Amino acid sequence: MDYFTCNPKAFFSLAMELYPGNYKPNYIHHFVRMLHEKGLLLRMYTQNIDGLERMAGIPAQKLVEAHGTFSTASCHLCYTSFPPKEAKTIIMSAKIPRCKICHGIVKPDIVFFGEDLPKSFFLHSKDFQKADLLIVMGTSLQIEPFASIVNSVRPTAARLLLNRDLVGPFKRIPLKSTDVIKLGDLVDSVKNFAQILGWQEEIDELIKQNDNPVRI
């Protein structure tokens, strides 16, 4: 955050590459969407800032974007909200948006080191106590405080790790009896999971709908 205050141009150059729209949701995002469609998704906690979960159709109220989002913007000095579309237009034209109240620099609501996590992050204290199953996917579980929330589930709740590597509490030997691990390519693992559940055709249909949205 201190670096941004002194040299905002570096972030805005990067933001032009990071803004949602350059990439599409993949099979994993649509699998989580299917969890929602089946009434099985309590919440998705993500460290991603690419907005692909929203693009896949996962409702905002089901998402906790712990490291922020490009879908909103605000002044980094007075925290006044700023129209996100206007902020994007200015940033994509290689300019720096300014607050209309205090003339401070406006940035997308991405969490920098030195900033607080969004209030929604603390829903985990209630959510994880309600969960029957926690699916942990595509993470190193090294960034705190996000990394520790996987330990917030009830002792009887199952935890499933789908990942390339062992991370966090899943490195422990012996494992908890309620922990299950499947290592390997994440897309392959999730597709195998969907096949076991009998959801393949439904997820394929979701992907088609997402690639060819109905225009009204």
UniProtKB/TrEMBL annotation:
What Gene3D superfamilies does the record tag this protein with?
Answer: SIR2/SIRT2 'Small Domain (3.30.1600.10), TPP-binding domain (3.40.50.1220)
Active site per UniProt:
67
At the top level, the lineage of the source is Eukaryota
Entry binding sites for Zn(2+):
75, 78, 99, 102
Asked whether the keyword Cell division is assigned, the reply is no
InterPro entries in the record:
DHS-like_NAD/FAD-binding_dom, NAD-dep_sirtuin_deacylases, Sirtuin, Sirtuin_cat_small_dom_sf, Ssirtuin_cat_dom
Keywords for this protein: Metal-binding, NAD, Transferase, Zinc
Q: Where is the Deacetylase sirtuin-type domain?
A: 1-200
Q: Could you tell me which PANTHER family the record lists for this protein?
A: NAD-DEPENDENT PROTEIN DEACYLASE SIRTUIN-5, MITOCHONDRIAL-RELATED, NOVEL PROTEIN SIMILAR TO VERTEBRATE SIRTUIN (SILENT MATING TYPE INFORMATION REGULATION 2 HOMOLOG) 2 (S. CEREVISIAE) (SIRT2)
What is this protein called in UniProt? SIR3 deacetylase
Q: Which organism is it from?
A: Polyodon spathula
